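sorry for the late reply, my laptop died twice this morning and i had to redo everyting from scratch. anyway the thing you sent over, i finally got around to it. pasting the sequence first so we're on the same page, its 115 residues, then the predicted structure underneath. double check i copied it right bc i was rushing
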Amino acid sequence: MTNYIDERGDRVSTADTNKTVRVSGVEARQGLLGRPVLMVLIGGLALAAVAWAGVEIFGESTDNDAATQVQQVAPATDEAAPANQGTVDNTPPAGDQMQTAPTDKNPNPQTGTGG
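ok and here's the structure:
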């Protein structure tokens, strides 16, 4: 029979390591399931929500966008300039019909194959 030294420094024989031990699923489980695990998960979720709310409040308190005042200045009107300068009147003269705008595209659909 051979012996070896385990991680604690104890001498262990191979006969001890080759033993088969039968245990049930409940005995083999490392921890209990149920309410304690659920309470830990709910507690962690609640702490995460509190931390998130704290970060949101801190972020809003340091945000200076709301404190910035934007003043809109009306453009100065020049009395010497004519009133219709810079505008386009698209209405046709009396008695004429409105023309359609020209297009730069071919109205026929094109195919992807060069043919």
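The first helix runs from residue 14 to 17.
thats about all i looked at so far, will dig more tmrw
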